[in-house]
């Protein structure tokens, strides 16, 4: 019995799991928007690409029909060239409710854009993995039919990234903006962004939406945003035609996460192919080539981790971020690289352990530019933790996977379904009701 005035009793494991499940389901239900889930009612009121993939993984545990609806709605906005836009705009929202909104992107003037307003850029292709996990969770005739509809669209997405976005000519996808990585203001992009001409005064012409709903000290700076706007303007000026990229686009980078997701997608597509009656062989072959090329182009044997390659300088970016750990999701990553990346993950930089003292940060916590409050420059995120957790399972490290899973669930138990978390204290940061945090907590709970 607790003494009067003493701390309340700590919940049992079952009680914590039940409370987390209730919170996660309530968050996803509150963010459901007729045919998709918004990441956040305040910060992100439209549909986001990789958010929807993560959300579908969680919905598969509680609302499988919505999981498939989520993916179908996103891919209904796929462009003719195969790109899946990183934002699909809700036409019911007023102009100016989000920046940069549909009027900024002006996708209607681009060749092959869908009838609905979208952005012109992409995000990491985690969708095939998500589709496979949704089907595997509850395989039914309806899920097989959903895979049949998605399969050619997922293949087109892969073709777009491996052909139209192969700016470096080696077989990897190139991102044309930090937003495409999903890790918007990561220190991984500081060096490539430094060459982008922009003035913070550019932002005076716009009204940022994010800083109206979150502390500006936790968000990208105005100078970051000025550069983001300049890069979008350059891509928009050529109407999002990728053939013009090599001629002088200001940001061209091969990202470890995007390409690891690309390889993992081919492995997932091989499994999906066996369900829908297609040949899995070409997917396995492409997966092997992507992994081999990633090791050749993005792995640094000196640091023992993966780094982005800046195609404008043909150099690896030196920052050591969580991006360098995520190639562990590739099941065919060679043993030498697996061990080296595990050593990096377990170092003081990231602190992965069977019993973690602190949450997994998004950036090297020993680096001088580590910022524990600012977005992707230090805080802990559930989606990158989830990807690493999946990779640890793939490479048979149940001890480390269990430690990371417990750390992720404890973040949500203590801080709620926040967008991201302080990498030391675990305090919730960003949006307080964030969908992918809820969804991935549900997936981690189901593995207990």
UniProtKB/TrEMBL annotation:
Residues 44-437 form the Mannosylglycerate hydrolase MGH1-like glycoside hydrolase domain. InterPro entries: 6-hairpin_glycosidase_sf (IPR008928), 6hp_glycosidase-like_sf (IPR012341), Glycoside_hydrolase_63 (IPR004888), MGH1-like_GH (IPR054491). The keyword Hydrolase applies. It holds the Pfam family MGH1-like_GH. SUPFAM superfamilies: Six-hairpin glycosidases. The keyword Hydrolase applies. PANTHER family: MANNOSYL-OLIGOSACCHARIDE GLUCOSIDASE. This is Mannosylglycerate hydrolase MGH1-like glycoside hydrolase domain-containing protein. It comes from Micromonospora mangrovi. The lineage of its organism: Bacteria, Bacillati, Actinomycetota, Actinomycetes, Micromonosporales.
